[in-house]
Amino acid sequence: MIKKTLRGFSLLLLIGILVGSLVACRKDEGEAIPEGMQIANCEGDDFRLYVPTSWNLNNAYGVAGAYYNISVQSTVSVVKYPVTEEMQAALPAGGDAEKNAVRIDTYAELYCKKAIAEQAVGEVSNEDLNLDISLLDGVTARQYHYVAAVKGENLHFLQVICEKGGAFYVFTFTCSDDLYENLLPDVERMLDEFIFADPYNPDDYARELGEGEAPEGMFLVSNNDVAYRFYAPDSWKANYDQQIFAAYREDDRSSVSVIPYMPQKEGMSVAEYFSICQNQMINIGGEDSLVMISEEETTLGDRNAMVYVYTYKISGKTYQYKQVVAVYRSMVYSMTYTATPENFEAHLADVDAMIDAFEFR
User: Minimal CA–CA distance to 107: which of 316, 330, 353?
Assistant: First the structure.
């Protein structure tokens, strides 16, 4: 049975809109991989993040990445952020290498450092800031090293940022003091081996496809690895190259996902679980980041459940959620609809149909 941690659930909330952003396809031939390394990419990435085989892949949520030690903060990730009209208005124009560097510096300050500051307690300090113009696979890039206190622990944030083809690419190495110096050689090799490339097409799906009948007008998203049946309307899509079970809209990337959680103690209630989720989101986004709209009793798969509707703001962008939580056989199950506020109402009928069709087995 697939079990997800609350840390993973929080990550899903932060990137919920991205769950369905990739389209499944396959490739015929393998790619050349640097010796002693492995691909940490997700389907559709137009770059390659290679990490040492001693690291653990951490790309189940649709973001290229890996971690070194699950018990000690030690993660890398690469995220592509298309330049929006809002960004364009806030940033200086690029041009030659020096202008591009100033543009990246401004982007880093307004968006990347700000996102770190929203998690931190106290000041985010600049450590060994590399102000020289460097390259990432031949593209002008800048490197930044911040230190911040997050949840009582001093963390290093090493970021390398470049702009290419109308998007910013952000490489982030987040690490505790204990492992930072030891892992720097690995990170330096990841940056040396990083390349831009055709969209990544993995050989195999990350999980088995589900088989079985579905209600009329719907298809089965889940499979026999889990203790439930999750169905979505035929107008939605599923990405089988992610290990989580989720369906999404191609037009606006609204998504619905189901995540099981095994409590560390027996008898965890729905209210206790959601309280933990709330606290984690507030710790990341700040006291005013989460606004509750409603909560009421309901059912999920014939089990008593609660449905929570709220908005959550992270890195300046607001999302709206409808989260249905139930307990089944000592596990907590969370079915979460994620959309931007302007698209939230448009898909509620489909989401309610998914909730009604959901069943435990």
Answer: 316
Return d(Cα 77, Cα 73) in angstroms, integer.
13
The span from the first CA to the last CA of the chain, in angstroms, equals: 12
Using CB atoms within 10 Å of the CB of residue 212, give its burial: 0 to 12 exposed, 13 to 18 middle, 19+ buried. Answer: exposed
**Among 331, 332, 314, 315, residue whose Cα is nearest residue 323:** 332
Q: In 10 A of CB 318, how many CB atoms?
A: 13
Tens of pLDDT, residue by residue over 28-77, are 345 788 999 999 998 889 999 999 999 988 876 678 999 898 778 899 99
CB half-sphere exposure, 39, CA atoms < 13 A: 19
Of 209, 244, 227, the C-alpha closest to 326 is: 227
Six-digit token string for 163 = 């702009």
Instruction: Please tell me the pTM assigned to this model.
Output: 0.57
Per-residue pLDDT tens over the stretch 324-342: 999 999 889 999 999 999 9
